[in-house]
Every structure is written in structure tokens, then in C-alpha cells.
Design a protein that fits this description.
The complex is a heterodimer of chains A (375) and B (450). Chain A is of the alpha/beta class. Chain A has 14 helices and nine strands. In chain B, helix 1 runs antiparallel to helix 2, helix 6 packs parallel to helix 13 and helix 11 packs across helix 12. Chain B starts with a strand and ends with a helix.
Chain lengths: 375, 450
């Protein structure tokens, strides 16, 4: 690794490590604490209005739960002898989709159906008002309901012409209906609240939910998350743009072309010129300085400073270039009155051990030179 | 052919039309055809550029830092008016202003346009092309064409040191003496004989002349004249380095001031400045000045110029010189000097005191030169290095200071070696080198060493 890379790494590793720890913590917290998001009666949602607890209970009892969010997914797993749970019917607004669901085989449990869904999936049933959900007792002979006892029912209330179990009645209308139609059992409940994670532990909610949903070895739980049956037409967004706008955009392209031709035509040729060399004369000295610095060449640097000092000061002392070091030290000591030993260390001592010592040496030399000059 | 902004605007208007048109496809096509038709009409009706005739006039010489103005006479012999833009293209460093100007020349008439140049660089600057864009009556499109109208402006060295000339001339007159001196000394030559007046030194009486006449006659003396000075300018790599502060930066455009001033001026330019002051002074002192520029080959050679036109000949010779990025060939330089200077003369070498370059180049052949001629070496020292040598505030600054001191010691050592060889050395800061060289010349002249 080059020094620069190493320095960069040293500088950034702590922030990077902190960032990494932060991300890991965030992931761990998210994975451990936050509920799996999802809407009302979503079999995967662990939020209060989700239905994950119920599907988990069903799976624990050996029931195969197939989660479906679209008609195609439901079609893949629905079969005769299985149960099809239809929830979130507000998303099933397309007639063809509803018809497709109606054609699926097997028993049905329809949760909180809207009128269109009710008309298609349970044609004999009529809506008859709504009530707030509350704990209601079965008041009917349906074994699943009587064994569960009181449960949170209500919501949409239904009535039927004939031949059906009408349970959890409020004001004479049932919030749970069960009847048989062309060989299959159709159950309609006016509220799915008793199946949610929040309410499952309440009264006989769990028992009722398990009794209704767990009677078959396989359950297909259809709970769409987005409105189904939209934007299935062949017209794309582009087709809906008026032709004038498209051609105007084309024309804007032409405008860009014309403007490019206008701006792109230079008034005459580019003029080239031979450029002179621009180099500071002091760059060689600077380069040498950097080299000293990069290699920490304190011995060289101290040598150069001392040589320059001798060069300047020896003539001031009345000595010549051939004078010995002892003579120079003695003459300097005599002139300045400083300690000869200290002067010898400054002028001829060892190379400085660190950068601070080098700076100190340079200042000592300056002081000594000033003292020689002053006296 | 050239389009204008109006063509773009017209096309943009088309976008609005297309947006509301009942048949947008056809509208696009129709608008495009309309635009094409307008462009064709406009180009056809625009005045011809090719038939324009040009003539130039104006300055051919300008000092660096001054402004030259060039007039361009444009004649339109065609049948249609030429209206539009004209660009007189010069190299960027010539700073031609205005960069482009409007022209409107009715058929058969002519117009005079002026371009001013404020060159940033010495040397020859040539006009490149004159380009005219002639627009049609609608102003949607036009014709464009270029003409070569050659013109050359020579940008001369600024000779900033001429402000030092009056004081040095005064010193020279002092030296010569407005009255011829009576004392014979070094550096004097016989001037004339005149009658003795009381107070004259009796030793200067010319007895032989006195014997011929009935009067007592004394000899008078004056400083020597008609010596030869050969200025040798080193144009090799060491002269390319920039030192000091660009003296022209304050007088040129404000926008470029900071970086240009801080960028310094090449040693070559400082040396030229010093050479010009020396030449002006020596010419006044009655000496003959020759000039040689050399790196590996002779770049310029001026000889035998008369006293009055010496300076103009010199600046003309110096103007195109640039420092070449080659090592100087001192051997070739010495032989070039020896071949040209038959008599003893003062050889002024303007180069850098670069120990490596001098030790390998000049020192081995210096004796050939110094045995026949008096050699004076002038060099420009770098104030940035002196500033670096004083740095003490941090370890980095001290390392730099050590490197600078190293260079200065080398410089002093090479100076000492040159002086041992009998070479006079002038080592001065950029602003001081011209007067210092002039002073050194005057000192040599006073000492009669020429």
C-alpha cells in the first residue's frame, strides 16, 4: 500500500466502521422488532389487523395454507375439497375477476363481502344493515359456532331466503350465514375482525376462526393487497397523448437541432498558439525541500543549514575557509560570550533526532548568527 | 452559411403552431419547409462575403505592456449591403479587442474598423484570419467566409530599466568629467593638448610640445573610449525559470493580474532588460556594443550597429527570442564569441549561476575566454529562494529552508570559483540586476579595465 492510500484508509476506517455497525444495528432492529407490514386480514401481516396468527395456528394443526393475492394465484391452489377464503373484497371490483373467483372449486368462506362480491359469490344472500362489532352468542345450531360460543361478530348483517344457518343474529339479521349451494358449502361472515391478530384471543374468536377455516386439509387464503382488474386494457399511456403534443415534441427536437446549428457555427477558426514554459525557478529548491521532508533527511537538512551558517559567519569572525572547527567555535564563543560546548553542539553536533529538534537547531543557528553580527 | 437565433425562435414558434394545428404531422412538415425557404431566401439576399476586399494599416512594433492599434479597411464592391459580424482573429496572447464587431457596409462603400492589441507575450504576433458573417434582410440566416489579411506585430522587450539610465549617465559624465582631467590614471587615454593655466599639475606638462611652441602646454586625459562590449545572452533552459514578480502585471488587464504577477517573469526577460540598459549606457560612453544570443546554436547576432540605432536593432533582435528547453553548449558559445570578437573586449555573460550547469559547461572552457577577454557574468537571483531560506515556522518550512540554503551555498561557491578565474560576477535580485550590471560596467570603466 502506498503512503497516501494508507493515510486515506487510516482517516476513513473509523467513520466506515461506525457506519457499518449502524447499518447492522438498523437491520437487526428491523428484523427483530418491527411487524411484517400488511393490511387488514393479510395472512402474512403481524400487525394488529393482520391475520398471521390465525394462519400460523392453522399450519400448526396440519392445515395447508396457501396465500394468494391475485386470482391467478388462487386458481393455482384452489380445488374441490379445499376451502377458499375470500377477504378484502373491496379490491375485487372487476366483474370478470369476481366471475373467475365464483368459478373456483371448493367451499367458500367470504369475509365482509361488498355488494358486488356478495351478488356474485353468494347470490342468494341479501345485505340487511350494519352494526358495530360486539360479542355476540351463536343462537343457532351450527356446530362450529355453538362449540366456539361467544365471539366478536357484527359488521354487515345478512339475510337469506331459505335453507341456511343464520348465526350471531342482531336485530333478526345474521352476521354469519352458512348454506349449501350446488354441492359446496358457502359461509359468509359480516366482519373479519374476530380473525385478526388483535382480536383472536378474545372470547371464542380463535375457536370460531379455527372451526370455520380449519375444517378442510387445505386453505387458499385470497386477500388482495391492491385493486384487481385495473389497467388490463391494451391502450398504453403513450396512446392517450394527443397527436398534436407528440408532433410538437418532435418539433421541439427540430428546434434543438436548429439552435445547435446556430450555436455550433463558430465565427472563424480557432486560433492556436505555442504556449511558453511556465516554471518557477524556485521549483528545484522546493523539490529538494520536499525530498528532504519525504525522507525525513534531518542530517542533510541540518548539514545544509550549518554549511550556510559557516559560509556567512566565518568571514564576519575574521577567519577564512581553511579555519578548523575548533578555531571557529573558539572565535564564536569569544565573540558572543556563549558556552563553547553549546556552540560546538549547535555547529558540529549530531544530526537532530526529530523534526522539533531540527526546528530548534535552525533557531539556535539564527540566534548565534544574530549575536555574532550584533557584537 | 450560418443560422441565427431567429431561426431557432421561428422553429420554436412552429412548436406552438403544431400543438394547436388540426393536422400536426403536416404542420411540422409545412413549418420545416417554410423555415428552409426563408433560410434559402435570406442566404440568397445576403451580401457576398467572398468579394469583400481588405487592407490593413497601423502599428508594427509595440513594446510589451503597451497597446497597438491596427486599422482594417473593409471595402464592399458587391451589389448588396453587407451587414453582420466581423471577427479579426489574432492569437489569444495578443488580446485583440474587440473580439468581434458589427459591420454594416452599403454596396460600393468602405468602412474602417480598429482592433487594439495588448500583447501579453514578447515576440511576433501575426493576424490569423478575418471572418465575416453577412446576414440577409430577414436576419434568419447568412453567409460566412474568411479572408487572410496578413499583418505582423512585433512585440518588443519593454526596457523597463530605462528609468535607471539618467542616473547612470550622470555617473558616466562624472567619470568622463565635463572638463577633461589633467591627471593621468588608469582607464584614461590621451585627449588633447592645451595651454597651461595656473593650478595645473606640473607633471602633466608636455615638454616636447612646449619646446615646439612658445607656450607651456599640458596634456589632458579622458576615460578610454571605443572599447568593445559583447553581450552574450544565454537562452538555454536555465533562462526559462520564472523569478520575482511580473512588472507588467499591474499595467495589464485586472482579471489576469493575480496569477500573472505571482507567476513571475522569466530570467530571460530580466536579463534582456539588463542587457538593454547596459547597451544604452555603453553606447553613450562611446563603446561599441555587439550582441549574441546562444544556447546550443547562435539564436541572434547583432554587430556594428551605429550608436543611434543600436537600441532599436537590439530590441528587434531580442523580440522573438524565447528560452529553449535545452542545456546550454558552453563550448560552442565560447567558440562563437572567439570567432566574432577579434580584439579584446568585455564579454558580458547573462546566464544563471547554476552550479551544475556552469561546472560541466562553462568552467572547463572559461580560460579560453578569460585569457583573451574580460569576462563579466551577470545572474538573476531568486527572491523566492531567499524567502524560503528564512522559513522557521514549522518542520516543513525548515526542510525547505535547508534546501534553499543548500542552493545558496552552491551559488556562493560557484561565484567564488568564477572570481578566482578572474571573472567579474554580478548576482542581483530581479529588479536590481539591470542597475547592478550598469554599475559594474561603470566601475570597470573607471578602473580602466576595459
Amino acid at each position: 500500500m502506498s503512503p497516501q492510500v494508507r493515510d486515506t484508509w487510516r482517516q476513513w476506517r473509523l467513520p466506515l466502521a461506525m457506519l457499518g455497525v449502524f447499518i447492522l444495528l438498523a437491520i437487526a432492529t428491523a428484523a427483530l422488532s418491527s411487524p411484517t407490514p400488511g393490511g387488514y386480514l393479510d395472512p402474512d401481516a403481524t400487525t394488529p389487523e393482520g391475520a398471521h396468527a390465525l394462519t400460523q395456528l392453522l399450519r400448526d394443526q396440519g392445515v395447508e395454507v396457501n396465500v394468494a393475492t391475485t386470482l391467478d394465484e388462487a386458481r393455482r391452489t384452489a380445488r374441490a375439497g379445499a376451502l377458499l377464503v375470500v377477504a378484502r373484497t373491496e379490491f375485487l371490483i372487476d366483474d370478470t375477476i369476481l366471475a373467475g373467483i365464483a368459478e373456483l372449486p371448493g367451499d367458500r368462506l367470504i369475509v365482509e363481502p361488498y355488494r358486488e362480491a356478495l351478488d356474485t359469490l353468494a347470490p342468494h344472500v341479501r345485505e340487511q344493515g350494519t352494526r358495530r362489532t360486539q360479542i355476540v352468542f351463536p343462537q343457532c345450531d351450527l356446530r362450529e359456532a355453538t362449540r366456539a360460543g361467544g365471539a366478536r361478530m357484527g359488521g354487515t348483517l345478512f339475510n337469506v331466503t331459505a335453507g341456511a344457518y343464520r348465526c350471531y343474529r342482531l336485530d333478526g339479521a345474521a352476521s354469519l350465514l352458512r348454506y349449501a349451494d350446488s354441492g359446496r358449502t358457502i359461509t359468509v361472515v359480516g366482519s373479519g375482525e374476530f380473525m385478526t391478530n388483535q382480536r383472536l384471543a378474545e372470547q371464542g374468536n380463535a375457536a370460531l376462526a379455527l372451526n370455520l377455516a380449519g375444517v378442510r386439509p387445505s386453505v387458499t387464503w385470497l386477500a388482495p393487497r391492491v385493486p384487481q382488474g385495473l389497467a388490463t386494457g391494451d391502450t398504453s399511456l403513450f396512446d392517450m397523448i394527443p397527436a398534436g403534443v407528440k408532433w410538437a415534441a418532435f418539433q421541439l427536437g427540430l428546434v434543438v437541432l436548429v439552435v445547435a446549428l446556430w450555436r455550433g457555427r463558430r465565427l472563424g477558426p480557432l486560433v492556436t498558439e505555442r504556449l511558453p514554459v511556465v516554471v518557477r525557478a524556485s521549483e528545484t529548491a522546493q523539490g529538494r525541500g520536499r525530498l528532504y521532508r519525504a525522507r525525513r533527511a534531518r542530517d542533510r537538512a541540518a548539514g545544509a543549514l550549518r554549511a550556510a551558517w559557516l559560509d556567512r559567519v566565518v568571514p564576519l569572525l575574521g577567519l577564512t575557509g581553511i579555519s578548523t572547527g575548533e578555531e571557529i567555535v573558539a572565535a564564536t564563543a569569544a565573540r558572543t560570550g556563549q558556552d563553547a560546548l553549546q556552540i560546538r553542539t549547535t555547529l558540529y553536533g549530531d544530526a537532530p533526532g526529530d523534526d522539533a529538534a531540527l526546528v530548534a537547531l535552525a533557531r539556535d543557528l539564527d540566534t548565534l548568527e544574530r549575536q555574532v553580527g550584533d557584537t | 452559411m450560418a443560422l441565427t437565433g431567429r431561426a431557432g425562435l421561428f422553429a420554436l414558434l412552429g412548436a406552438v403552431v403544431v400543438l394547436v394545428a388540426p393536422a400536426p404531422g403536416q404542420a411540422v412538415l409545412g413549418w420545416l419547409l417554410l423555415l428552409l425557404a426563408l433560410v434559402v431566401i435570406d442566404v440568397a439576399l445576403a451580401g457576398s462575403v467572398r468579394r469583400l476586399r481588405f487592407r490593413r494599416d497601423g502599428d508594427q512594433l509595440v513594446r510589451l505592456g503597451d497597446t497597438a492599434s491596427i486599422t482594417l479597411l473593409v471595402e464592399n464592391p458587391g451589389r448588396r449591403r453587407v451587414r453582420g459580424m466581423l471577427r479579426d482573429a489574432w492569437p489569444p496572447s495578443a488580446q485583440a479587442r474587440p473580439a468581434r464587431q458589427r459591420v454594416d457596409i452599403p454596396a460600393g462603400e468602405r468602412r474602417r474598423l480598429t482592433t487594439t492589441l495588448t500583447p501579453l507575450r514578447r515576440g511576433d504576433s501575426g493576424a490569423v484570419t478575418v471572418t465575416v458573417r453577412s446576414l440577409g434582410p430577414l436576419g434568419i440566416a447568412g453567409r460566412q467566409g474568411s479572408h487572410r489579411v496578413p499583418w505582423q506585430v512585433r512585440v518588443l522587450p519593454p526596457f523597463l530599466s530605462r528609468r535607471h539610465l539618467p542616473s547612470r549617465l550622470a555617473r558616466l559624465r562624472e567619470l568622463e568629467g565635463l572638463h577633461p582631467v589633467l591627471v593621468r590614471g588608469q582607464g584614461t587615454e590621451f585627449d588633447s593638448l592645451r595651454e597651461y593655466v595656473v593650478g595645473d599639475d606640473v607633471r602633466s606638462i608636455d615638454w616636447r610640445a612646449t619646446a615646439r611652441r612658445n607656450d607651456v602646454v599640458v596634456r589632458t586625459w579622458r576615460p578610454e573610449r571605443d572599447r568593445r562590449v559583447l553581450i552574450v545572452l544565454d537562452t538555454s533552459r536555465t533562462s526559462a525559470g520564472r523569478v520575482g514578480v511580473d512588472p507588467l502585471a499591474t499595467t495589464t488587464e485586472a482579471g489576469a493580474t493575480g496569477e500573472r504577477g505571482a507567476g513571475g517573469w522569466p530570467r530571460l526577460d530580466w536579463e534582456m532588460d539588463a542587457a538593454l540598459l547596459l547597451a544604452a549606457l555603453a553606447a553613450r560612453a562611446g563603446d561599441r556594443v555587439d550582441f549574441l544570443a546562444h544556447d546550443r546554436v547562435v539564436r541572434a547576432w547583432v554587430s556594428g550597429a551605429s550608436r543611434t540605432e543600436l537600441l532599436s536593432v537590439l530590441v528587434n533582435a531580442m523580440a522573438p527570442l524565447e528560452a529553449e528547453l535545452v542545456e546550454a553548449d558552453a563550448r560552442a558559445m565560447v567558440s562563437a564569441v572567439l570567432a566574432r570578437a577579434k580584439h579584446r573586449c568585455l564579454v558580458v555573460l547573462l546566464t544563471d549561476l547554476n552550479s551544475a550547469a556552469l561546472e560541466e559547461g562553462l568552467l572547463p572552457v572559461l580560460t579560453q575566454l578569460s585569457s583573451r577577454h574580460l569576462v563579466l557574468l551577470a545572474a538573476v537571483s531568486d527572491p523566492a529562494v531567499a524567502a524560503m531560506a528564512a522559513g522557521r515556522e514549522s518542520a516543513e518550512a525548515v526542510y525547505d529552508a535547508a534546501a534553499a540554503e543548500h542552493q545558496r551555498v552552491e551559488r556562493r561557491r560557484i561565484t567564488a570559483r568564477l572570481r578566482r578565474h578572474g571573472v567579474e560576477v554580478v548576482d542581483a535580485l530581479p529588479e536590481d540586476v539591470a542597475p547592478a550590471l550598469a554599475d559594474a560596467y561603470l566601475a570597470l570603466k573607471a578602473a580602466g579595465r576595459l
